[in-house]
Amino acid sequence: MGRKGSHSDQFRKEACKLVREQGYSIVEAAKQLEVPYNTLWNWLSRLYGPKSSADSQTDPALSDDPALLKSRIRELEKQVHRLEMEKDILKKATAYFAQERT
């Protein structure tokens, strides 16, 4: 389901229910459903408004809950680590292909 708008309205509503009614964080629900975090955030914003109180309770970026913030920090640290590894691989590949050209 890679193209824009390929999810049914029913799927979108059920995804939002995970966050609003079942207590999943937006990050957790997005991972479970294999949709981008921002996509789920947009669906919630359209259905419930951009700054609803439930969003601030379930979005680590808007929460004051230390557990949610720590979880978000761990996710971001993993992402930084992965991106640094990708950058190093690209540097090595660039050096390899630069040597191959000469």
Task: Give a description of the structure.
The protein has 102 residues and is mainly alpha-helical. It has 2 domains: 1-63, no CATH class; 65-102. It is 73% helix and 0% strand. The protein has 5 helices and no strands. The protein has helices at 9-20, 26-33, 37-48, 53-58, 66-101. Helix 1 crosses helix 3 and helix 2 (26-33) crosses helix 3. The radius of gyration is 18 Å and the shape is elongated.
Characteristics of this structure?
mainly alpha, 2 domains, elongated
Shape: elongated
Between the first and last Cα atoms, what is the distance in angstroms? 43 Å
- Helical run tally: 5
Arithmetic mean of pLDDT: 81
Alpha carbon gyration radius: 18 Å
What is the count of β-strands?
A: 0
Order of helices and strands: HHHHH
Strand content: under 5%
Q: Major beta sheet, specifics?
A: none
Helix content: over 70%
Unreliable residue runs:
53-57
Secondary structure category: mainly alpha
